[in-house]
Amino acid sequence: MPRELTVASRWAAVAALLLAAVLVERSVHAASTSALVLQGVVALLAVLGGVKMWLHNCFESHLVVVLAVAATAIGTVLSLTLGMPGSARTDLSAAHVVTFVLSAAIGVLLVADARARGATR
To answer: What is the top-level taxon of the source organism (predicted)?
Structure first.
């Protein structure tokens, strides 16, 4: 069921699409095929969720974006500490920082969206 569109939901959709772009860039430079596939799938989820959120701002779009953000954040932490499957651990780079910032921003924007929709009821 579509919800009302808010400024926060629109910005969260844009941030999800930016996160997908960062994931595509990281998958192009992936050290292993498994990392490429994992990042590609999560990027696809972020694109689908972001577009759906932009158009409908429904529960399903929030769920897909939250799952993509969680997978991205967990994968980034794992690549920095243990390494992705088939590769060694990596050093902190600008892409990692951008990933963390976008993940945090999406979380904040989704909370702001929920509050904005709650205030109008």
So the answer is: Bacteria
Residue 91 above 60 pLDDT?
yes
Domain map (residue ranges) of the chain: 7-119
**3-state SS string over 62-96?**
HHHHHHHHHHHHHHHHHHHHCCCCCCCCCCCCHHH
pTM assigned to the model:
0.91
Which residue did the predictor score with more confidence, 108 or 121? Answer: 108
Task: Show the tokens assigned to 61.
Answer: 């779009």
Asked if residue 23 lies in contact with residue 106, where contact means CB atoms within 8 angstroms, the answer is: no
Tokens in use for 46? Answer: 């972020």
